[in-house]
Amino acid sequence: MAHGSRLVDMVHERIEDFLAERTSILREISPDLEPLDAFSRRFLSGGKRFRALFCYWGWEAIGGRGFDPFAAEGGRDRFPVVSAAAALELFHAAALLHDDIIDNSDTRRGAPSGHRLFEQLHADSGWAGSAPEFGRASAILLGDLLLGWSDELLDEGLAALPDRAAARRARSEFMRMRTEVTAGQYLDILEERAWQSQAESEQRLRAERVIVYKSAKYSIEAPLVIGGAIAGASAAQFDSLRAFGLPLGIAYQLRDDLLGVFGDPEVTGKPSGDDLREGKRTMLIAIARERLAAGQRRLLDELLGDPELAPEQIRMLQQTIRECGAVDEVEALITANVDKAAAALEAAPISRDARAELGSLARAVTRRTS
C-alpha cells in the first residue's frame, strides 16, 4: 500500500478537525461532558483504517485520477471522499462501543472497552448507584453520539460534491450499510441464543449470513461502493466493486473468526479464546460441529459461551477444533474467497493504480494477525 500511511494521515486530520468543531459544543454545554470528548478521541485515534482505505480506493478506482496523495493540489476534489472515509471510521467506532456492550467485553485493542472506562470513572469519582450500570448507559450514549456525528461528517463531504446524483447515491449506500450491519448484529446475537432451535443442516448457512451482513458488506463492500458512488461509478463499475468486495469481506471475517479463537492476546488486544467465552456461533464453530463426533459436539456446545472458561478449557477446545479439521477448512474457504476476489479485481474496469492498491489491501486484510 504505497500511499496507505499518507491516506491514513489525511483521514485522521479530517477526524481531528471535525471533532474539534463538535466537541466545542460539548464544552459549551458543561465541563461534565469532558469524558465524552476524551473517550471519543481515544476510540478514534487508532485502528487500521481499513474501511477508510477501501472507501478512498473505491473512489480512485472509478475516477482514475492517478494523482499523488502527497501533493497539496487536488485537496478540494478529495474532500468529499476523505470526509466519507472519516465518517466510516466514526460509524465503526460507534459500532465497536455498542458491540463491546453486547458482548460484555472488557478490552478493545488492548485497552479498556468504552463501558469499562465509564465504569472506572464512576468508581474513581465515588458517585452513587451502580458503576457497571453507569458504564453501560454512558457507552451507549457515546456510541449514539458518534453515530450521529458520522452522518454529519458524511453530509459535510457530500455537500461539497458537484455531482448531486453521485452524492445521493453515496448517501443511499451509506444508509443501506447502516441497515445491513444492524441487521447482521441482531442475527449474530440471535444465533448465540436460538441455535438449538434451528436444524443442524442450516447452522453453516446461518453463520454465513451473519458473516455477510454483520461484517463482509460493512467492512469492505460498502466502503468500496460508497467511494465509487462519490466518483460517479457506472452500473458495471458498481458490479465489479461488489464482485471484488463481497468475497474479500467474507475472507476478512473468516480470518477474524480464527483470530477470535486462536489469536495471540499480545497482538489482538483481546484475551485468548475470547470468542469461545462469548459463545460466538461463527462459521468455524459450525464447521467444527459438523466434523465432531456426537460426544465432542455435546461438550463443545456445553462449554461454548461460558464466560468463566478456565485457560485449560480454552486450550482443550482450541485443540478439539483444530484436530477435527475445522481450521484447515476455514483456511481453504479464505483462500477460495481471496482467489474469487482477485479474479474479479483483475477483470474490473478500474484504474491500474487502484487495482494494485486494492490487491495490496486484500493481502493485508486476509493475512493479518490482529
UniProtKB/TrEMBL annotation:
<dbReference type="GO" id="GO:0008299">
    <property type="term" value="P:isoprenoid biosynthetic process"/>
</dbReference>
<dbReference type="Pfam" id="PF00348">
    <property type="entry name" value="polyprenyl_synt"/>
</dbReference>
<keyword id="KW-0479">Metal-binding</keyword>
<keyword id="KW-0460">Magnesium</keyword>
<dbReference type="GO" id="GO:0004337">
    <property type="term" value="F:(2E,6E)-farnesyl diphosphate synthase activity"/>
</dbReference>
<dbReference type="InterPro" id="IPR033749">
    <property type="entry name" value="Polyprenyl_synt_CS"/>
</dbReference>
<dbReference type="InterPro" id="IPR008949">
    <property type="entry name" value="Isoprenoid_synthase_dom_sf"/>
</dbReference>
<comment type="similarity">
    <text>Belongs to the FPP/GGPP synthase family.</text>
</comment>
<dbReference type="InterPro" id="IPR000092">
    <property type="entry name" value="Polyprenyl_synt"/>
</dbReference>
<protein>
    <submittedName>
        <fullName>Geranylgeranyl diphosphate synthase type I</fullName>
        <ecNumber>2.5.1.1</ecNumber>
        <ecNumber>2.5.1.10</ecNumber>
        <ecNumber>2.5.1.29</ecNumber>
    </submittedName>
</protein>
<dbReference type="GO" id="GO:0004161">
    <property type="term" value="F:dimethylallyltranstransferase activity"/>
</dbReference>
<dbReference type="GO" id="GO:0004311">
    <property type="term" value="F:geranylgeranyl diphosphate synthase activity"/>
</dbReference>
<keyword id="KW-0808">Transferase</keyword>
<dbReference type="GO" id="GO:0046872">
    <property type="term" value="F:metal ion binding"/>
</dbReference>
